[in-house]
Specification:
34% helix; 159 residues; Rossmann fold
Amino acid sequence: MRQEAQGTRCKAKGGEGLGGGNGSRRSVEKRKIRVLIAKVGLDGHDRGAKFVAHELRNAGMEVIYTGIRQTADQVASAAVQEAVDVVGLSFLSGDHMVMVPKVLEKLKHKGKDDVTLLVGGIILEKQIPQLLDMGVDQVFLPGTHPSEIVKYIEQNAGH
């Protein structure tokens, strides 16, 4: 009969880890929120997207930036491959009303429609309700303080 070496898979009474020598509890690390930031379509201006990515990293999130000129399928595939909690789409060129539905469709097709979807950039205020009705979780306009974006993600990311 084979036995495991004592202490390799056991925990002491009260949840204290064995083998630590000091009897302190091992803290269970919370998984970092994973965020994908993407520029969809032909928009080549990514300063805002890079700024937001930097701020989210500074807030302790794991950020994947896809770069510019991504297709909806590339964004959805990256969201699946990277197992992200949040997808953030940045727009300057005004094609968000065409590109957001395409991204949503591809995310759904790939089984990733449970992700928190954020849109930011130059968005007309009158289009925000339409984007929310499509399935966007939140829209952030220029001038939004980064802490507001961080707070929203921390409170709403589905993980």
